[in-house]
Amino acid sequence: MNKLQLKGLIAIAALASVFSSCRKDRITPDPVDPVAPANGIYILNEGNFSRNNSSLSFFSIASKTTTPDIFKTVNGRGLGDTGNDAKIYGSKMYIAVNVSSTIEVVDAKTAKSIKQIKLTNGGVDRQPRSIVFNKNKAFISSYDGTVSVLDTASLTVDKYITVGRNPEEMVISNGKLYVANSGGLDYANPDKTVSVIDLTTLTEIKKVDITSTNPINIAADNYGDIYVLAYGTDYPSKPKLIIIDNKTDAVKTSKDIDAGYGTSFIVVGDNAYYITDAGKIAVYNVKTEVTKSENFITDGTIFKAPYALAVDPVTQQIYVTDAIDYSSNGRLYTFNDAGKNQDVNKKGYVMDTGINPGTIVLLSK
């Protein structure tokens, strides 16, 4: 989840939100949980913009050991400039390196490079941002206004789908791919749409006007709702949480939310987790549509610059990175389902990371 250090540059004032409650019935099946909890943790570190110093850290849960930059150790070269997203699909991990405009495909267990894919259009970098998967296809949003469709067997791009301006995160729900079009490179005129792509025809079938500008983060629940965080451009402004019905693709509601800029909205079961503007970890119940907790952390742990989140759906462990000062190495913390710090190394946190630890990837056994 790359923010290009926007967390350190943009402050969005926010107040605690009050959410109305309603009953929701589950209409889609739960996702299949991993067969085992995570036994390893990858951290994709963005590095500093245009410094060519992205890195991939790894922590072994079994041995409690850290490899500071496993990609460079294994492959003898660096990742490139501004690692933006990483996800595991099957036996491979796919890493989007934004400014270098590459997709690194590596063995998920060893980080050994399988293929580096350059995403360009007539020699112009596309700048990949986010990755999701469906039926042996990887979908990659890029700042040039496209979603690449990558075949995960041949590792070649089948087609490019034109969407909105500067697309960011994506989510799959009800047979459709939803793409948050930020328009974030045009500060004076950001986008305010979510593209809807039919996964059968691989075509954009509509753009949903969410009225709020600069949508970046997007997620889905098991009740037919799509959640979009839109940040606007005015200062001070409150981020908006926009909820879209995945049957009609119509906006159901829009609410103020105390989210920090660029935080992921991670839905696991009936709970969504996000980083607040005050640097806390909030929990929102997607079934009742009320805030369950304004701070999940119960042991007094305080972050300097909380940056990325991940949740193990098997153990309910919560992982949080701290970018500290956005220019030096960060840290990874883990908390149990009661919000208590799991001080595995007796130093208050799990591991030291690289600079700007923006994406957490859990490696299952």
Overview of this structure, please?
The two termini are 24 Å apart. With 365 residues, the protein is mainly beta. A 4-stranded antiparallel beta sheet has the order 3-2-1-30. The model is unreliable at 4-23 (pLDDT under 50). The chain has 2 helices and 30 strands. The chain has helices at 6-9, 70-75; strands at residues 38-45, 55-60, 65-67, 83-89, 92-97, 102-107, 113-118, 120-121, 124-125, 128-134, 137-142, 146-151, 156-162, 167-173, 176-181, 193-198, 203-209, 215-220, 225-230, 240-245, 251-256, 266-268, 271-275, 281-285, 290-293, 306-311, 318-322, 329-335, 351-355, 357-364. Helix content is 3%, strand content 47%.
Mean pLDDT: 90
Amount of beta strand: over 45%
Shape: globular
SS-derived structural category = mainly beta
Helix content: under 10%
Main pleated-sheet profile = 4 strands, antiparallel
- Helix count? 2
Distance between the termini: 24 Å
Oligomer class:
single chain
Whole-angstrom Rg: 19 Å
Give, in spatial order, the strands making up the sheet with the most strands: 3-2-1-30
Could you name the ranges where pLDDT drops below 50 across 5 or more consecutive residues? 4-23
* Counted beta strands: 30
